[in-house]
Recover the amino acids of this structure.
C-alpha cells in the first residue's frame, strides 16, 4: 500500500515536471510579449530595456532553468501586465472559479442522478427517452449560447435573477446551470449503466420473475453502485468543468480564473499563463490521486490493480 | 417500445428480460437482428431519418443551397425569415449582418460540421486505438508510458491549448482537429486497452503467440476486429460533442474562421443579435441541437445493442 | 396690521437668505456604474501602462493640458499657460496654484518633474517615453517647470506639447513613501475622485473627495448640476451581457457595438455617441521604396489606378447606413488626417461608388480578370467589427473581379510583420484623431517608420522638413502638402467616419459627452438625472 502510494506520488511529480516544460514551451510559442506590452511608438531601445526587465533577453534554456528553480520554491514570477506576483493574481481569482465549478458539479449531480436512476428503472419507456433528451440537451447547444439565452430570459425578460457578475447566491444560479448542464448527459449515462448492471443481476431478475418486490436492500445496493462511476470520474469531470468555466465566466462577467485565461493569453502574460496551466495540472493529478485512494479505502476488495483499470 | 400503463413494472421487466435473453443468444451467435431491434424502438425512426438527411444535405450541399453562402449584400442586411413581416423571398430563413442567406449557409455548414467531426473522430480514434492496443498488449513499461502520456494530455487546460494554437497558426481547421484529437484520443486508448487486456488472455491469442506470430500481426488480425464494435459506439457518442466544441472554439476565436459558414461560426458571430435579430444565431443553433440530439439518441441505442453489459439476463 | 407686515417681512427675509443656498445645494450622491468591455491593465500606477487606454484615469488624476472633447483643441489644465522659446530648446509651463492631492498636499512643479522621471524609467510602458527622454525637466520655482532639450530642439512638438495630454501627475512625497509595490494599492491623485476599492478582473470603484467644492476643475460645475458620489467601472467582456446589464439596471452607461444599437433603442435607452471618433479604412502594404528588400514590383496594388479602382468599388453610403446602422457617414482623407487636426483639407470629398469605372480602371491597368489580394483582419480595442467589415469589403471587391484572401489574425501577430516589411497585401484598420499626428505620420508614411503604408522620397522629404519646422503656419502648409499627395495617391482608402457608441439609462444619467477619439471619457462630468 505504501509502495503504491509512493509510486503514485512519484508519477504525479514527474507529470508536473513535464507540465512545467509544456507550459514554458506553449507560452513561448505565442510570440513576443513586447509587441503587446509596448505601444506601437516604442523604440528599439524601449524594447531592449523592457526585455531585460522581464528577463526575456536571456537564452531560452536559461529562462527555463530560472523559471523552474523559482517555481520549486513557490515563486512564479511577476505578471508582465500588472507586475504583481503571478501566483497571487491567480490565487485571488481561484476561489470564485472553484465556487462556480463546485456548484455546477452539484447541480449536475442533482439533475443527472435522479434522471439516470429513473431511466434505468423505466428502461426503454417514454420516460427513459424523456430523461435522455433532457440530459442530452445540455450537450446539444454551445455553452455560450445557452448562457446568453438564460440571461435574456431570466434576467432581462422575467427579471428574476441578476444578469451578470459574482455576488450572492442569486448570482450563482444562472452561471452554474449554464456550466453544469453540459456534464449532465455524461453522468446520467454512467448512473444509468451502473443501475442497469445491478438491477440486471441474476438474483434480482429471478426474484422479480417470481413476483417478489425488490427489497429495500437491493435498492440501496443499486443506488450505491450507481453513484460509484460518477465519483470515479469526478476528478476528470470537475477539472473539465473548471476548464469549461472559461466560456461561462466570459459570458457572465464572472471574475474567476477562466476570464484570466483569456486576458493573459491575449496579453502574452507568460508568468500568469504558466501558473494557470500548472494549477490545472496539479488539480487534475491531485484529484485523481485522492479518488484512487478513496476508492481503495472504501472498497479494499477491489484491489490496487483494478483501480487503475477502472479509471484507465 | 413497451408501453407503460396499467401493467405491473415487475412483469414488464421480467418480460423484457426474457425477450432480451432470446435476443442475447442470437447476438451471441453473431447475428444481430437490426430490424427487430428498430421495430421495438420506434422512437429511433425520427433521429435516424434526421441523420440520413444531415448526411444527404452535407453531400449535396452545392446543389441544394439556393444562394452562395459567402455572397454579401448589405442592402439585405438582417432581413427576418420570409414568413415574418419584412422578410423577403430570396432569404427564406433570413439574412445575417452582411446580408448573406442563412439557409444556404446552414446547408453548406452541414458539410463543414460533417467533415470536421468525422475527420476529428477518425484521427483521434485511429491514434487512440493504436496506442491503446499497443499498451494493452505489450503491458510493462510501454503500457505505463502510454497511460502516463494520456494522463498528461488531460491535465493540460484545453482552452489554453486551443487559444495558443489559434495564435500560433491562425484560426483554422487544423487547430480544431488538433484540439479534438488532444481531447478524445485517450478515451479511445483507454477503451481499447481495457478490452485488449481481457482479450489477450483468450485461447486464440495465446495460441497465436505460441505459434510465434509477431505481436503486430496478432494486434491487427485478432484483437482489432473484436474491439471495433465498442469503438464505433464510442465514436457515435463523440460526434455531437465535437460539433458543439467547434462552436465554442469559434466563440473563443480559435475555431474555423470566417467566411467559412460553419454552424459554430454562425452561432458565435450572431450572438450579440439574439435579442434583436434572433434568427442569425438561433437557426444554426437549432440545426446543431437537432443533429446532436439525434446523433446522441442513435448512439445510445447502438450502444444498447452492441454493448454486452447492458444486455443483462 | 403692523404685526402681520412684520411677520411677512421676516418670512421674506428668511426666504431670501435661504434661496441662493437652496439653488446651489445640488446633490453629490448616488452611484454611477459604467460597463466596459475591458479595464485594460487595471492598475493605478501610470508607470505600468499607457494611460490613454485606462478608462478611469481621468477621474482620479489630472493633466497639465486638456483638450476640448469635440474640437480637440488644447485647453489649460494644471498648466494655466505654456510657451516655447524661440530657438525651440525650452518649453515652460506655468502651473495653477492651490491644487491639492487627496491627502491635502499641494501639487507643485516637483511633482510634475517626478511624474516625468517615473515615466521614463526602464520599467515604464509609457508610449511617449522616447519623446520625454529627449527632454530634461527643470523646476524653476514652486509653480513653474521647464523642459530643456537634451540635444537638438523640441520644436517639432506641436504648439501644445500635447504629449502632456493624459500624463498623470502623481505626488512625489506619497510615491516616495509607499514605493513601487505599495503604490498600486494606495494611489493618490489631484482629481475629483479617489480610489475606493477594486476587485481584480471585475470592477474598480471611485469615491468623490470630500472637499470637492474647493476643487478647481469641478467645484463650480458640480455645485450647479450635481454629480455622482461613487463611480464603479465594471468589466463585462460580452456585449450582449453588457446590454442585459444596462437593461436590468446593473449599469447606467454601457459601451456598445453597432450591432446592439437597435435593441438598446427599442428598450427605451439613450444612445450617446462620441462623434467622428474613428475611421475604418483599407491600408495597403507593399508600396515601399524600390530599394527595400521586400519590394515586389509585380504587386497589382502598387499601381495608383488599381488602388483607386478598389476605392471606387466600395459603397460607402451603404457601409455607413447598413453596416454601421446609420451611426457612420462616408468620409475622405488619408490615414491619420482628421477634421480639426493638423493638415486637414475640407475640400477632400469621399470617393464615389462607381463599380463600372472601377472595372475599367482595372482593365486599363492590365487586370481585366482581376487579381487576388491577401487581406488581414484583426480587431482593435473598441472596434471589434473590423473583421466583419473586411468581409463586406471583400464582397464589394468580388463584384469587380478582385478576390480577397481573408486571413484572420491579431494585431500583435501582424505588427512585427509590418516592421519587417514581411506582409504584402491589405488590412482593414482604423485611424482616430490625434492631437499631435506628426509622430504617427512618421510611423505610417516615412520609409524608416514601422507601418509602411506609403514610402516615397517625396513623403520622406516633407516629413523630415516638418520635423525641423517651428513656425505654425509653415507646419500647416507642409502638412497639407503631405495630405494632398496621399489623398490623390490613394495610399489608404478611408470608408466612413464612425462613432463610439454608449447606451445610457435616461432615468439615472441626464447628460454626458465623451471625447471624440475614445479616451479620456470624462466621467467626472456625467450629470445625474434627479
Amino acid at each position: 500500500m505504501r509502495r503504491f502510494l509512493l509510486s503514485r506520488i512519484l508519477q504525479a511529480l514527474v507529470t508536473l515536471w513535464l507540465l512545467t516544460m509544456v507550459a514554458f514551451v506553449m507560452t513561448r510559442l505565442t510570440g513576443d510579449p513586447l509587441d503587446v506590452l509596448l505601444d506601437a511608438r516604442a523604440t528599439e531601445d524601449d524594447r531592449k530595456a523592457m526585455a531585460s526587465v522581464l528577463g526575456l533577453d536571456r537564452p531560452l534554456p536559461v529562462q527555463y532553468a530560472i523559471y523552474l528553480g523559482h517555481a520549486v520554491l513557490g515563486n512564479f514570477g511577476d505578471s508582465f501586465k500588472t507586475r504583481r506576483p503571478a501566483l497571487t493574481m491567480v490565487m485571488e481569482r481561484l476561489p470564485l472559479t472553484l465556487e462556480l465549478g463546485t456548484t455546477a458539479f452539484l447541480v449536475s449531480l442533482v439533475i443527472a442522478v435522479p434522471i439516470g436512476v429513473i431511466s434505468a428503472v423505466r428502461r426503454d419507456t417514454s420516460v427513459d427517452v424523456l430523461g435522455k433528451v433532457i440530459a442530452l440537451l445540455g450537450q446539444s447547444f454551445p455553452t455560450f449560447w445557452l448562457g446568453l439565452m438564460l440571461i435574456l430570459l431570466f434576467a432581462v425578460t422575467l427579471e428574476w435573477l441578476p444578469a451578470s457578475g459574482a455576488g450572492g447566491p442569486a448570482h450563482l444560479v444562472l452561471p452554474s446551470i449554464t456550466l453544469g448542464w453540459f456534464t449532465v448527459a455524461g453522468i446520467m449515462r454512467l448512473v444509468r449503466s451502473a443501475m442497469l448492471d445491478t438491477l440486471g443481476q441474476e438474483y434480482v431478475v429471478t426474484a422479480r420473475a417470481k413476483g417478489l418486490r425488490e427489497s429495500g436492500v437491493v435498492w440501496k445496493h443499486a443506488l450505491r453502485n450507481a453513484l460509484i462511476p460518477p465519483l470515479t470520474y469526478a476528478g476528470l469531470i470537475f477539472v473539465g468543468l473548471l476548464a469549461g468555466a472559461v466560456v461561462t465566466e466570459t459570458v457572465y462577467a464572472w471574475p474567476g480564473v477562466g476570464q484570466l485565461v483569456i486576458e493573459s493569453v491575449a496579453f502574452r502574460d507568460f508568468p500568469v499563463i504558466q501558473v494557470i496551466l500548472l494549477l490545472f495540472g496539479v488539480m487534475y493529478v491531485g484529484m485523481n490521486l485522492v479518488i484512487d485512494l478513496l476508492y481503495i479505502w472504501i472498497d479494499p476488495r477491489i484491489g490496487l490493480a483494478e483501480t487503475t483499470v477502472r479509471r484507465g | 417500445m413497451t408501453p407503460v400503463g396499467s401493467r405491473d413494472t415487475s412483469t414488464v421487466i421480467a418480460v423484457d428480460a426474457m425477450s432480451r435473453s432470446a435476443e442475447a443468444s442470437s447476438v451471441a451467435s453473431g447475428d444481430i437482428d437490426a430490424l427487430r431491434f428498430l421495430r421495438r424502438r420506434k422512437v429511433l425512426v425520427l433521429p435516424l431519418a434526421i441523420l440520413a438527411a444531415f448526411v444527404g444535405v452535407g453531400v449535396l450541399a452545392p446543389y441544394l443551397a439556393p444562394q452562395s453562402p459567402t455572397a454579401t449584400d448589405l442592402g439585405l442586411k438582417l432581413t427576418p425569415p420570409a414568413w415574418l413581416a419584412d422578410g423577403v423571398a430570396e432569404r427564406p430563413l433570413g439574412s445575417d449582418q452582411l446580408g448573406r442567406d442563412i439557409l444556404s449557409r446552414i446547408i453548406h455548414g452541414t458539410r463543414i460540421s460533417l467533415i470536421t467531426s468525422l475527420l476529428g473522430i477518425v484521427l483521434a480514434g485511429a491514434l487512440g486505438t493504436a496506442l491503446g492496443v499497443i499498451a494493452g498488449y505489450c503491458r510493462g513499461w510501454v503500457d505505463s508510458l502510454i497511460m502516463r502520456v494520456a494522463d498528461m494530455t488531460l491535465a493540460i487546460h484545453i482552452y489554453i491549448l486551443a487559444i495558443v494554437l489559434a495564435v500560433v497558426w491562425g484560426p483554422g481547421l487544423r487547430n480544431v482537429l488538433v484540439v479534438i484529437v488532444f481531447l478524445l484520443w485517450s478515451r479511445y486508448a483507454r477503451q481499447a486497452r481495457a478490452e485488449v487486456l481481457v482479450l489477450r488472455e483468450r485461447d486464440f491469442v495465446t495460441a497465436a503467440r505460441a505459434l510465434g506470430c509477431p505481436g503486430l500481426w496478432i494486434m491487427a488480425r485478432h484483437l482489432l476486429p473484436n474491439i471495433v464494435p465498442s469503438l464505433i459506439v464510442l465514436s457515435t457518442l463523440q460526434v455531437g460533442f465535437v460539433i458543439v466544441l467547434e462552436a465554442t472554439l469559434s466563440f473563443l476565436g480559435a475555431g474555423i474562421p470566417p467566411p467559412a459558414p460553419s454552424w459554430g461560426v454562425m452561432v458565435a458571430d450572431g450572438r450579440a443579435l439574439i435579442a434583436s435579430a434572433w434568427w442569425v444565431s438561433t437557426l444554426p443553433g437549432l440545426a446543431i441541437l437537432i443533429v446532436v440530439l439525434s446523433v446522441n439518441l442513435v448512439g445510445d441505442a447502438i450502444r444498447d445493442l452492441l454493448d454486452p453489459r447492458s444486455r443483462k439476463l | 396690521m403692523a404685526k402681520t407686515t412684520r411677520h411677512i417681512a421676516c418670512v421674506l427675509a428668511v426666504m431670501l437668505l435661504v434661496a441662493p443656498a437652496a439653488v446651489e445645494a445640488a446633490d453629490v450622491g448616488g452611484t454611477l456604474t459604467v460597463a466596459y468591455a475591458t479595464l485594460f491593465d487595471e492598475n493605478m500606477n501610470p508607470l505600468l501602462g499607457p494611460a490613454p487606454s485606462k478608462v478611469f484615469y481621468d477621474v482620479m488624476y489630472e493633466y497639465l493640458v486638456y483638450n476640448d472633447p469635440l474640437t480637440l483643441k488644447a485647453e489649460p489644465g494644471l498648466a494655466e499657460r505654456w510657451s516655447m522659446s524661440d530657438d525651440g530648446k525650452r518649453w515652460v509651463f506655468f502651473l495653477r496654484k492651490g491644487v491639492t492631492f487627496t491627502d491635502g498636499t499641494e501639487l507643485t512643479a516637483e511633482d510634475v518633474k517626478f511624474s516625468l522621471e517615473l515615466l521614463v524609467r526602464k520599467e515604464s510602458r509609457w508610449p511617449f517615453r522616447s519623446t520625454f527622454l529627449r527632454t530634461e525637466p527643470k523646476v524653476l520655482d514652486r509653480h513653474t517647470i521647464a523642459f530643456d532639450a537634451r540635444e537638438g530642439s523640441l520644436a517639432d512638438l506641436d504648439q501644445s506639447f500635447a504629449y502632456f495630454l493624459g500624463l498623470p501627475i502623481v505626488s512625489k512625497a506619497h510615491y516616495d513613501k509607499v514605493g513601487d509595490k505599495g503604490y498600486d494599492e494606495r494611489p493618490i491623485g489631484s482629481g475629483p475622485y479617489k480610489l475606493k476599492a477594486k476587485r481584480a478582473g471585475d470592477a474598480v470603484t471611485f469615491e468623490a473627495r470630500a472637499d470637492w467644492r474647493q476643487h478647481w476643475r469641478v467645484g463650480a460645475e458640480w455645485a450647479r448640476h450635481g454629480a455622482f458620489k461613487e463611480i464603479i467601472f465594471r468589466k463585462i467582456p460580452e456585449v450582449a451581457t453588457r446590454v442585459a446589464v444596462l437593461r436590468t439596471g446593473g449599469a447606467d452607461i454601457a459601451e456598445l457595438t453597432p450591432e446592439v444599437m437597435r435593441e438598446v433603442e427599442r428598450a427605451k435607452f439613450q444612445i450617446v455617441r462620441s462623434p467622428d471618433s474613428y475611421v475604418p479604412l483599407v491600408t495597403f502594404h507593399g508600396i515601399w521604396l524600390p530599394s527595400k528588400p521586400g519590394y515586389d514590383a509585380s504587386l497589382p496594388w502598387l499601381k495608383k489606378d488599381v488602388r483607386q479602382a478598389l476605392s471606387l468599388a466600395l459603397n460607402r453610403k451603404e457601409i455607413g447606413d447598413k453596416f454601421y446602422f446609420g451611426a457612420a457617414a462616408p468620409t475622405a482623407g488619408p490615414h491619420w488626417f482628421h477634421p480639426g487636426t493638423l493638415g486637414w483639407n475640407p475640400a477632400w470629398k469621399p470617393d464615389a461608388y462607381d463599380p463600372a469605372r472601377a472595372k475599367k480602371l482595372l482593365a486599363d491597368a492590365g487586370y481585366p480578370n482581376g487579381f487576388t489580394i491577401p487581406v488581414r483582419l484583426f480587431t482593435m480595442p473598441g472596434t471589434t467589427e473590423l473583421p466583419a467589415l473586411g468581409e463586406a469589403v471583400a464582397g464589394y471587391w468580388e463584384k469587380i473581379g478582385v478576390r480577397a484572401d481573408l486571413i484572420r489574425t491579431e494585431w500583435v501577430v501582424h505588427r512585427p510583420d509590418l516592421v519587417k516589411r514581411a506582409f504584402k497585401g491589405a488590412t482593414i484598420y482604423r485611424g482616430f484623431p490625434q492631437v499631435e499626428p506628426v509622430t504617427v505620420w512618421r510611423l505610417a508614411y516615412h520609409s524608416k517608420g514601422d507601418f509602411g503604408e506609403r514610402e516615397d522620397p517625396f513623403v520622406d522629404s516633407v516629413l523630415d522638413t516638418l520635423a525641423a519646422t517651428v513656425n505654425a503656419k509653415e507646419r500647416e502648409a507642409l502638412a497639407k502638402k503631405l495630405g494632398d499627395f496621399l489623398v490623390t495617391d490613394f495610399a489608404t482608402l478611408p470608408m466612413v467616419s464612425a462613432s463610439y457608441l454608449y447606451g445610457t439609462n435616461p432615468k439615472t444619467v441626464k447628460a454626458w459627452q465623451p471625447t471624440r477619439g475614445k479616451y479620456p471619457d470624462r466621467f467626472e462630468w456625467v450629470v445625474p438625472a434627479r
